[in-house]
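Run folding on both entries below.
>entry_1
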Amino acid sequence: MKSGSGIQLTDVQAVYSGPEFNLWELIMGRQIHIGGMHSSNSLADAAELPSGALGVDLCCCTGEGMRFLVRLRDVAKMHGVDATEAMVECGRARCEEEGLSDQITFTVGDASDTGLPGGKADFVWGEDAWCYVLNKDKLIAEAARLVKPGGVIAFTDWVEGPAGLTDEEALRFLKFMKFPNVQNLDGYEALLTEQGCDVTVCEDTQQFGPYMDLYLSMLDMQLTSDALRIVGYDSELFQGLAGEMVFMQGLAHAGKIAQGRFVARKKG
């Protein structure tokens, strides 16, 4: 696992309470993760979620993943936990607008220490967001605590790829993305196993590079004006952000960063 960025939770909260969030949502849509609904469906298929399940989404952002699960995967109820109040407020408003408030609820809190009752959830869910959490050990332990015996932990996350990051590359990547650290496939598999889970899926989705190509093409060919508006028409800032995305594009195609997909079942 690469770390050392010095990023704190307050740095992450600042991003998701300001224009950078709006920029990411412009580029990636309301499902702010690589692959959008395609990725969500692939994760749900791999997790074999039962009809009428109860789930917890850790680091749920605005809850778009939960709305997907309730609307399209026959999940009965979801509870989301996110540390950024602005995201939770936005998520509650969107659920109210879409008539889903009875099925989807939120807590502003620490995904590593939610305070929710243990052993009640059929599954714990996460999509490209656990990279923002400092203590991955505590996070996986909390996911295992929340899920009932025989239940599933299913998530995707940005991870260090098989080619590995140099210390310099890791520091630049972590600071730009506001990640305190970045885990790898083997690291997550080990943490899940340590928490009494059988890991059934631990893989590179192979989606990172192609989707970075897509996002940069969209910014260049279609969304330039929209992106400039979000950053107050600060061309220097926009070019700087685009440059960091090009840097990540290179890392992805070199196999240095990846999107990992994980499914684990808690022994019961």
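>entry_2
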Amino acid sequence: MREIVLDTETTGLDPLAGHRVVEVGCIELFNMVATGKTFHAYFNPEMMMPAGAEEVHGLTDDFLADKPLFAERIEELLAFIGDAQLVIHNAQFDIGFLNAELERTKRPKLVNAYVDTVSVARRKFPGQRVSLDALCERFGVDNSARTKHGALLDAELLAEVYLELSGGRQRDLGLAPELEGRGAAFLVVPHNRPVRPPRPHAPTPAELAAHAAFLKQLTDPMWLLAA
């Protein structure tokens, strides 16, 4: 199953009031494993950045001045998304902004199925905080680099949170393709807990005697029949 974890940054909270998308970040998952494929772009919003929005994501007018318009990279974005299921934190916000941008370019709205991780977290942890930072803290996901909101970074963090919300990844079985065949040193351990080495055990004389007595009780054991 192919899924796209997606996040946006914008100039404000309401696309109907003319606010625009200024950043999109996407992470591809296949069967709940990150493939390493991403889409990331900044956009010139064709408007001044409000101070409140700049405080959230740190994207300034000067930084965005030479970035492409959303319409210039829309085909690349749509091709990356394809028909994959989307995974979004507070999906209505991001989908609303993306659909507003699509409407400006006379394109149809997104029809992809989606998972809203805010709704999932609220059902799983009723009455608890379900912000991305709160869920990172709950699941032990390192978000120390998140000093400001950033679409690609937030998508990467959300991918980790989504896997935990879905029951936790099988870290020793669900390896990304680039890690296959590289040995146990590359396995990811839940919450960075160290792997304990196996503890050797030498049977005592009493245990050996008990084992021999048990074997005498067996009738036609398979290993003797095979011999």
